[in-house]
Amino acid sequence: MDMKETITSFHLDVLKEIGNIGAAHAATALSALLTQKIDMHVPKVEMVSFNDMMERVGGAETFVTGIYLRIEGDVSGGMFFIMPVEQASHFIRQLIHEPQFDFANEPSDLGQSAMQEMGNILSGSYLSALLDFTKLKLYPTPPALASDMFGAIISAGLIEVSQVSDYVIVIDTSIVTEADQNREEVSGHFFLIPDPDSFETIFNSLGVT
User: Are residues 67 and 145 in contact, defined by beta-carbon separation less than 8 angstroms?
Assistant: First the structure.
């Protein structure tokens, strides 16, 4: 059976709830890091094809900043966190107080380290929520950071992911800081790509058949 046919809206609602719990944990950690209030939530979780995933961020040639890590343990797969490079640069400028910082123009080591730490917080918070719900043993690798065309970033990560599945779970993420007068919303995307056998393990552990 096609994998997309086996994943229902109820399954995605369960993942959205887990995502919102992870986002709340991440917001607390980021608030402490930025010394300002951060609001985060997950407005939408969908299962899309790889082609649709490309379009979600504006196409394969869109320049983005991305964090990639591999998940091993009771389930395996890959996880990406992708932000438009302008938004990622804006967020990191607030964090390191470096007005000229730009991922598109020779980013400093400090700024890249800050983005990697942000990736650690975001991915770690989501995986911790997943662990709390499923009681599975999951071991993430250290996240890798890249600023490049989205197609290049995602292709490099997919080399390590089983190719027999054509679908990816998209967890939209909204981040709102208080530093901007207009409370600018920063939008990112988690792309969760479990190896095919892992889908069943995740949902069985959640008590969802």
Answer: yes
How far is the C-alpha of 180 from the C-alpha of 109, rounded, in Å?
A: 25
- List pLDDT tens digits, range 19-67: 899 999 988 988 887 777 888 889 888 888 877 888 888 888 999 999 9
The pair of three-digit structure tokens given for residue 60, joined into one six-digit string: 């394969």
Q: Are 45 and 15 in contact (CB under 8 A)?
A: yes
Nearest CA to 55 among 78, 82, 17, 15?
82
**DSSP output for 154-198:** HHHHHTTS-TT--EEEEEEEEEEESSSTT-PEEEEEEEEEE-HHH
Retrieve residue 90's tokens: 């804006």
| pTM across the whole model | 0.84
Q: Which residues pair with 68 in a beta bridge?
A: 80, 144
Taking the C-alpha atoms of 191, 150, 24 and 7 in order, what is their torsion angle to the nearest 10 degrees?
Answer: -20
Contact between 171 and 13 (Cβ < 8 Å): no
CA–CA separation, 191 vs 12, rounded Å? 13
